[in-house]
């Protein structure tokens, strides 16, 4: 409908925005200046304690400095009342005492019909409530009493009863000269397929009126009294008044309660909402028998930026929560999300409140998890990720979900949160080689095969060349230091080497701490990374690492910022560490396999492992001699014995200890 020129301007001029808004907020007396029309209040569109919502009454505009909501009186009514443009105009014009210009005949006819349908629905509400008080409603009253609904609750929720008769409501409405088309149009009756009188839609059911954001009765929900009924709950069919996907049970009252600061709770059914309200959780709503729709989600966010979904703790409830995640991911924005409070298995909110009380339910709400946690749980729960292929499949599934997020900032935060959760899941465990303390030759636990760790060298062995085997561990420690230093000074390449960094043994607590902090905070930039390292490990940790002689002379440390040189250094050192790990694993297996004299298969495996380690050693021969000197002065690589000789000495030593 097109309104006459100047009508909206006059309407805005004659309407006081502060009066319109004042019905929904409490003005901050300290900040507001009523004489100048300069009013401040906590925002009605998002939860806050400070008064960041500003109304300029003279200009007729509002703006929230928190959630950035803005508009005029018409847009405020549209948002808070959940109505269309023309309905908002009508509400505002009625308050301002201005007649709304007549619409075109077809539009006017449609509006008139909606009004007539709403009037018929009110008649039905009264008739159902009356039937609950008759003898026919005795069983229904007993059921409601058993569920804890007293007379005050029945009055508050306008609960009624539809007798198990075919034309009870039909005859009552016809007795008031209601037109057939209106009864059928309101969804209160259905035409007979046999040519007889239309029959009532609801029969033998406890009736719950469903009202819209303006308080109009638009539909009913009926709970069957017959336990064998195929439909436990039945909603009105969709009509010109009722769109199931755009309606919420108890939306008007919940919006008011949420405006007072209560969290918005989303339950599954009518009885859950009623139980929550009776327990003091007044901002509770429920979808109407179907999964939450995009329109309902928008309605929820207009009431509260972070509704709490309280779904039943059964399989169906969990499936509903997971479906909701897929719906919400493309729609979330900064300040608009969901949290989930899953009920104990086999219970709904009503059950939990009755069995454990308000305190237990409040604790569950306080512990509601963000959506990213439920997304992670869906993709990982009950699954084993013991192969690269399974890990890659998890990464792919999570990437696909995160791609659905439109807001780049939220998408980035989701990616980091998933990365943190993934790190916790695949974090290297202590024990085996990872538990070796650098430089002391001691093992913290049993090895991979459950055998006791290597023994201390005997007195006669201490002077032998076998003692030099500790140099291999020192070499590994120095290589780790170079890797960590290169990544610390060039954090932009950390993501490229995440896999290798995660698998790095880290022979002491400092190295492990550095690795963990880098994996978690590298994306936040060099300054933040340094701050996190300083906070977690001490202010001197990074300085001590970079000042070590073999680290300080590394080319990429001497010339920080050269990402290509740093990448080559890290790749080379990680390859050498990997080769060393492979050699140690073969030695350990060989010690297990040897019984007396080694067979050809074992010696061939050892020779291959030794060759790989030898190649890794030779690949770094151009490193300077100073680089090869550790803090204790030991020369590590330059005079290193051949990998084969070292390997055989280790085996003979290990066998001699077993035999002793």
UniProtKB/TrEMBL annotation:
SUPFAM superfamilies given in the database record: DNA primase core, Zinc beta-ribbon
Single GO term (MF): zinc ion binding
Keyword Transferase: yes
Organism: Sulfitobacter geojensis
InterPro entries tied to this protein: DNA_primase_core_N_sf, DNA_primase_DnaB-bd, DNA_primase_DnaG, DNA_primase_Znf_CHC2, DnaG_bac, DNAG_N, DnaG_primase, TOPRIM_DnaG_bac
Cofactor(s) recorded in Swiss-Prot or TrEMBL: Zn(2+)
Domain comment in the entry: Contains an N-terminal zinc-binding domain, a central core domain that contains the primase activity, and a C-terminal DnaB-binding domain.
Reactions it catalyzes: ssDNA + n NTP = ssDNA/pppN(pN)n-1 hybrid + (n-1) diphosphate
Alphabetized UniProt keyword annotations: DNA replication, DNA-binding, DNA-directed RNA polymerase, Magnesium, Metal-binding, Nucleotidyltransferase, Primosome, Transcription, Transferase, Zinc, Zinc-finger
E.C. numbers: 2.7.7.101
Name this protein carries in UniProt: DNA primase
């Amino acid at each position: 409908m097109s309104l006459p020129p100047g009508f909206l301007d006059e309407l805005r001029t004659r309407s006081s925005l502060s009066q319109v808004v004042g019905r929904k907020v409490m003005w901050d007396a300290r900040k507001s200046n009523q004489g100048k029309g300069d009013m401040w209040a906590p925002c009605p569109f998002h939860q806050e304690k400070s008064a960041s919502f500003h109304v300029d009454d003279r200009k007729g505009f509002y703006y929230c400095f928190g959630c950035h909501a803005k508009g005029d009186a018409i847009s405020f009514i549209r948002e808070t009342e959940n109505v269309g443009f023309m309905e908002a105009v009508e509400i505002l014009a009625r308050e301002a005492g201005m007649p709304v210009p007549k619409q075109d005949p077809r539009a006017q006819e449609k509006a008139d019909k909606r009004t007539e349908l709403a009037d018929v629905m009110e008649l039905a509400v009264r008739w159902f409530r009356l039937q609950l008080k008759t003898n026919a409603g005795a069983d229904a009253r007993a059921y409601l009493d058993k569920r804890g609904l007293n007379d005050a609750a029945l009055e508050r929720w306008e609960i009624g009863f539809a007798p198990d008769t075919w034309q009870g409501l039909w005859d009552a409405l016809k007795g008031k000269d209601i037109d057939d088309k209106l009864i059928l149009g309101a969804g209160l009756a259905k035409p007979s397929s046999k040519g007889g009188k239309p029959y009532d839609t609801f029969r033998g059911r406890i009736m719950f009126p469903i009202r819209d954001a303006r308080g109009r009765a638009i539909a009913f929900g009926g709970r069957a009294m017959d336990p064998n009924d195929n439909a436990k709950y039945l909603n009105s069919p969709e009509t010109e008044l009722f769109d199931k996907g755009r309606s919420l049970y108890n939306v008007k009252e919940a919006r008011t309660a949420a405006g007072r600061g209560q969290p918005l709770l989303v339950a599954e059914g009518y009885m859950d909402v009623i139980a929550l309200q009776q327990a003091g959780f007044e901002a509770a709503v429920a979808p109407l028998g179907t999964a939450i729709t995009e329109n309902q989600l928008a309605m929820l966010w207009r009431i509260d930026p972070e509704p709490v979904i309280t779904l039943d703790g059964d399989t169906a409830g969990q499936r509903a929560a997971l479906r909701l995640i897929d719906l919400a991911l493309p729609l979330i924005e900064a300040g608009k999300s969901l949290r989930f409070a899953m009920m104990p298995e086999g219970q709904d909110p009503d059950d939990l409140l009755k069995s454990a009380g308000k305190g237990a339910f409040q604790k569950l709400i306080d512990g509601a998890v963000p959506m990213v946690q439920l997304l992670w749980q869906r993709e990982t729960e009950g699954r084993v990720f013991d192969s690269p292929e399974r890990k890659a499949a998890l990464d792919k599934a999570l990437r696909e979900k995160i791609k659905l997020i439109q807001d780049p900032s939220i998408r980035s935060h989701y990616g980091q949160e998933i990365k943190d959760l993934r790190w916790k899941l695949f974090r290297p465990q202590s024990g085996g080689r990872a538990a070796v303390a650098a430089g002391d030759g001691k093992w913290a636990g049993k090895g991979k095969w459950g055998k006791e760790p290597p023994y201390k060298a005997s007195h006669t062995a201490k002077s032998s060349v076998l003692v030099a085997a500790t140099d291999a561990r020192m070499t590994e420690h120095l290589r780790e230091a170079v890797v960590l230093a290169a990544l610390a000074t060039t954090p932009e390449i950390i993501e490229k080497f995440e896999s290798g960094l995660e698998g790095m043994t880290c022979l002491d607590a400092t190295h492990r701490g550095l690795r963990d902090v880098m994996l978690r905070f590298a994306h936040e930039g060099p300054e933040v990374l340094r701050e996190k390292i300083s906070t977690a490990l001490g202010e001197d940790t990074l300085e001590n690492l970079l000042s070590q002689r073999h680290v300080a002379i590394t080319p990429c440390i001497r010339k920080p910022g050269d990402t290509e040189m740093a990448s080559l250094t890290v790749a080379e050192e990680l390859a050498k560490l990997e080769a060393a790990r492979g050699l140690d694993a073969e030695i350990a297996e060989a010690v297990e396999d040897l019984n007396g004299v080694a067979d050809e298969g074992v010696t061939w495996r050892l020779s291959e492992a030794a060759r790989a380690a030898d190649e890794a050693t030779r690949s770094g021969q151009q490193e300077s001699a100073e680089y090869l000197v550790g803090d204790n002065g030991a020369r590590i690589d330059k005079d290193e014995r051949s990998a084969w000789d070292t390997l055989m000495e280790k085996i003979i030593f290990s066998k001699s200890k077993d035999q002793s």
